[in-house]
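Dear colleague,

Thank you for sharing your sequence with our group. We've completed the structure prediction you requested, and as agreed, I am returning the results in plain text so they can be pasted directly into your records. Please verify that the sequence below matches your submission; if there's any discrepancy, let me know and we will rerun it promptly.
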Amino acid sequence: MREQSTVIWAKAMQQMKLSGSIVAVDPWIPYFDTNVNTKSVYSTMNEAAANGTIYRLFLHNIRTAGVAHLIDTRIGKSIDVLPNIPDHSISCDSRDSCCKKSATFNLA
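Please find the predicted structure tokens below.
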């Protein structure tokens, strides 16, 4: 679930009474290779990404969780979007893309 970690971060910000926002960057496009992932669930997930269903579900879930006001959603790839955000405005960068995770923390 793409929104799960975003909601967890936002809830933590609320509980700790931290100011700021979360920039959620995602291209919201299909990414499963259905030639490799042949089960029908992967085609269904690709279709839901292609027609905007997954993005709309993300928006619904962050609203329902009460954290939408803390999240700045940007559609695109991190490599294209993040360079447009001033360096000094990011204190934590956590990326999760198709089960390949990395996290970089710069708390200076």
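Summary note from our side: Residues 59 and 68 are 8 Å apart (CA to CA).

Kind regards,
the structure core
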